Amino acid sequence: MSGMTVDLFIPCFVDQLFPQTGLNMVKVLEKAGVKVHYNPNQTCCGQMAFNNGFWDEAKAIGEKFIRDFPHNRPVVGPSASCVAFVRNNYSKLFHNTALHNEYKQLRKNIHEFTDFMVNVLKVTDVGAVFEHKVTYHDSCSALREYGLKDEPRKLLSSVRGLQLVEMKDSQTCCGFGGTFSVKFEAISSAMAEQKVQNALDTGAEFIVSTDSSCLMHQEGYIRKHKLPIKVAHIADVLASGW
Q1: Which domain does 82 fall in, by range?
Q2: Which tens digit of pLDDT belongs to each residue from 139-171?
Q3: DSSP states of 102-147 as a string?
Q4: HSE on the CB side for 186, CA within 13 Å?
Q5: End position of a domain, from candidates 120, 149, 165
Q6: Looking at residue 2, what DSSP letter applies?
Q7: CB atoms < 10 A from the CB of 214, how many?
Q8: Nearest-angstrom CA–CA distance, 115 and 154
Q9: What is the pLDDT of residues 7-29, one digit of tens each?
């Protein structure tokens, strides 16, 4: 796959709050022999508007999103949530529209980062070194909407010095859920408490996931209660030690 060119999809969440995660994804892709292209005009995929019932606004954002990417090469992003939204919900916005063919092609081309590494590039070992005990959080979007489970674990298992331990109920929601965490703060906080406690019970030093939004939510709870555990996006782990 050396020499392949991919387009970077950097979700607004990563762009505004966790830019280093996007840069680390680029670092890993380039080490795997991939050329990366970034269109700085890209913005949101429209998920937030769509999930809150603003479908007209989501469609307007989605039209721009579709036009911001070429349709003849892979698009790779460090967020299972955003990529799953494009794959699964653009059909509700663009079926039988002027962008019907374009959205169908984008749906085929767009990949979450770990899925792309394992299933397209066939790479599981990038030479990373991360000498810590970690536990993995399956985000709802990654597991249920994207169908991602084994790929992140395969990549983590190949990291030198890393000990991967599974937490109880790893597939249970952490409570973020986008605006759910704002509208239902008490429930959201209780879910974060349960998730973080399950991670602490493993003795792990880090909670790792494919979604920065989940990690931000859990980190907020961790910081508030001064708990002895940290969070890390999987791209940040894979970019460590080399």
Answers
A1: 5-120
A2: 888 888 899 999 999 999 999 999 999 999 877
A3: HHHHHHHHEEEHHHIIIIIS-------B--SEEEE---HIIIIII-
A4: 0
A5: 120
A6: T
A7: 29
A8: 10
A9: 999 998 899 999 999 999 999 99
The answer to whether the CB of 234 falls within 8 A of the CB of 114 is: yes
**What is the distance between the alpha carbons of residues 182 and 63, in angstroms, rounded to a whole number?**
28
The CATH code of the domain that includes 140 is: 3.40.50
Q: Do the beta carbons of residue 194 and residue 172 sit within 8 Å? A: yes
Q: Which of 120, 152, 176 is the endpoint of a domain?
A: 120
The domain total for the chain is 2
Structural domain contains residue 188: yes
Q: Which two tokens stand for residue 230?
A: 């940290």
DSSP result, 27-74: HHHHHTT-EEE--TT----SHHHHHTT-HHHHHHHHHHHHHHS-SSS-
- Are 160 and 234 part of one and the same domain? yes
Are 138 and 226 in a shared domain? Answer: yes
- 206 part of a folded domain: yes
